[in-house]
């Protein structure tokens, strides 16, 4: 079993420029899910939406090409992929000659699918999209819609996840709301480096007390966890404490190493959001 402390994180790593799929380092999701009481069938749908801005390879003549890559990794995969290992893997294409973008796409899809689904009884695939430079101008910056919690003046006294701060009006009529915050911060569980994110919470059900929700989100400030694990913890805490009828938690983290990770967890099947980046990304 791969453990986070055995990953390339926090280590001096060579940056190979010849294709090497062995650089990918999958980590079992079960390790983080067990800590928040998820056993067996997961109680949500969703995916991890990655954007990689540093993708390059050589054509058969040795001329470099570049692209922006998008990866959609279903939350049902038994593994997440450690982000530094993905950076090293993508860098291994830098000096590799390939026939064209389609060949690059197919190779990346095969390798990421194998790593993410490794150990599954019935393996699936990972979604991969490559955007060529002529498509770059179509990329737009857009903030998450919703009511901004950060407008509230609150006393923040917790720096580790504090679900007891979450309350909802359980005896009142249900509402539909979309709430956002730019104050999400957690830390890498291996290196301790900060991970910054914006979060959107869309729900229907008992109205969530907003000041407590903001204080709860701020309480992740010194928590150590991968992006995907933090979003799943938030989803589970909101579900347990506030009893929403429907719930979607979506976070967009700022990029590190040319890659951003944007986990989405939802109580019901839904289309994936457009992957336009936020201003901080």
Descriptive labels:
alpha+beta; two-stranded antiparallel ribbon; 281 residues; 28% strand; globular; 10 strands
Can you give a write-up of this model?
By secondary structure, this protein is α+β, with helices and mostly antiparallel strands. The chain contains five helices and ten strands. The strands form two sheets. It has an eight-stranded mixed beta sheet with strand order 5-3-2-10-9-8-7-6, covered by helices on one side. Strands 1-4 form a two-stranded antiparallel ribbon. The longest helix is centred in the middle third of the chain and has 17 residues, at 101-117. The mean pLDDT is 95.
User: What percent of residues are in strands?
Assistant: 25-35%
Per DSSP, the total helix count is 5
Radius of gyration: 19 Å
Tell me the major beta sheet: 8 strands, mixed
**Average of the residue pLDDT scores:** 95
What's the helical proportion of residues?
10-25%
- Topology as H/E string? EHEEEHHEEEEHHEE
Would you tell me the structural class of the helices and strands? alpha+beta
């Amino acid at each position: 079993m791969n453990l986070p402390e055995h990953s390339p994180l926090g280590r001096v790593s060579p940056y190979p420029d010849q294709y090497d799929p062995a650089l990918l380092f999958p980590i079992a999701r079960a390790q983080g899910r067990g800590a928040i009481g998820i056993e067996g069938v997961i109680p949500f749908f969703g995916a991890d939406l990655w954007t990689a801005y540093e993708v390059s390879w050589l054509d058969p003549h040795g001329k470099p090409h570049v692209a922006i890559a998008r990866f959609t990794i279903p939350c049902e995969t038994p593994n997440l992929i450690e982000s530094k290992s993905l950076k090293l893997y993508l860098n291994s294409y830098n000096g590799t000659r390939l026939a064209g973008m389609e060949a690059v796409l197919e190779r990346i899809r095969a390798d990421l699918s194998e790593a993410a689904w490794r150990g599954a009884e019935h393996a699936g695939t990972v979604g991969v999209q490559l955007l060529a430079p002529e498509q770059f101008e179509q990329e737009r910056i857009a903030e998450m819609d919703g009511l901004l919690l950060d407008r509230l003046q609150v006393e923040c006294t917790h720096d580790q996840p504090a679900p007891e701060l979450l309350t909802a009006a359980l005896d009142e009529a249900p509402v539909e709301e979309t709430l956002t915050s730019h104050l999400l911060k957690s830390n890498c569980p291996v290196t301790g480096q900060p991970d910054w994110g914006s979060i959107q919470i869309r729900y229907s059900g008992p109205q969530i007390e907003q000041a407590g929700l903001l204080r709860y989100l701020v309480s992740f400030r010194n928590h150590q966890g991968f992006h995907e694990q933090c979003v799943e913890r938030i989803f589970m805490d909101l579900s347990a404490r506030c009893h929403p009828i429907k719930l979607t938690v979506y976070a967009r983290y700022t990029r590190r190493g040319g890659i951003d990770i944007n986990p989405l967890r939802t109580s019901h099947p839904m289309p994936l959001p457009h992957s336009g980046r936020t201003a901080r990304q």
